[in-house]
Amino acid sequence: MATVTEIKREPRNQETINTLEEALRMVRDNPDASEVFVLAKIGDDYHRLSSGITDLMQLVATLELAKFDALNRMT
After folding, report:
1. Do residues 38 and 50 touch, judged by C-beta distance below 8 A?
2. How high is the mean pLDDT of the chain?
3. CA distances from 3 to 6, 9 (A)
4. Which terminus of the chain has fewer Cβ atoms in its 10 Å neighbourhood, N or C?
5. How many CB atoms neighbour CB 20 within 10 A?
6. What single DSSP character describes residue 48?
């Protein structure tokens, strides 16, 4: 007779939680951290959270680089 082994699965959002915890550690450990921008996909919707943004053009350039990186990961 075969035995049944319990399968333990991590919640679907565990990787996201780990990423946010790492970002929080980085901000807490660096007093020079001054801005944060988070884009979270929940279901089919995206939710944006951010602190005050002082240099909008720098943020736009950074988002363009992130977009380029994401598109490269698709290939």
Report:
1. yes
2. 89
3. 10, 19
4. N
5. 13
6. E
- Give strand pairing partners of 49: 38
Task: Give the start-end residues of each E strand in 11-61.
Answer: 37-42, 45-50
Torsion of CA 73, 13, 21, 64, to 10 degrees: 30
Task: Extract the tokens encoding 33.
Answer: 């951290």
Q: What are phi and psi of 52, to 5 degrees?
A: -60, 140
Contact between 36 and 24 under an 8 Å Cβ cutoff? The reply is no
Amino acid at the residue 16: T
pLDDT in tens, 20-50: 999 999 999 999 999 888 989 999 999 999 9
DSSP state of 2: P
Please name the amino acid found at residue 4: V
